[in-house]
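Input record (one chain):
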Amino acid sequence: MFSQPAEIIYLSGVILGSIVRSIGVKLSGVQRHKDMFSTTESLILLLTFLGMFLLPLLYLFSPWLDFADYTVPHSVLIFMNLTGASLFLLAIWLLWRSHADLKSNFSPAVEIHPEHQLVTGGIYRWMRHPMYCAHILWGVAQALLLHNWIAGLSMLLSQILLLVYRIPREERILAEKFGAAYLNYTTRTWRFFPKI
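The corresponding structure, as predicted from the sequence alone:
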């Protein structure tokens, strides 16, 4: 059983983040169907699940990944824990804000329904992919809070793989559906961070 403050912060963040995501999906009214994801995307999502939940929980509740633990000086540990906790809070807020602004325009798959509209307000005024940004921040927070080479880095690596696969497809579909409005939007915003 885990006992380090960083691990307690991490587990609390996972629980809170999962609640925010569940509420966002429920409020969107999206219905899952068996053909929602391609085989490739399903495999990448499985890797993401392993990196986001399974490996970290295996690390927290079993000794199986202890061989990949590392230690850092106490002053570095404090910095890592405070930074990780702050990034996790920012990630959860960004995840909540993304769902709140998308509402029924959210879909867990790369697909656009006839009733979907282009959302460019709220957090989307500042960045095109705040939900993906939230997952990147979650991955960095996980790496800082779980002092294990495998469990710590697993989400960040799996998220990068997912984003490399998904973002070009998603942006192509949005450009096809919304045309000049979406292309104009891309000139005003960056993908993951506010444009300065």
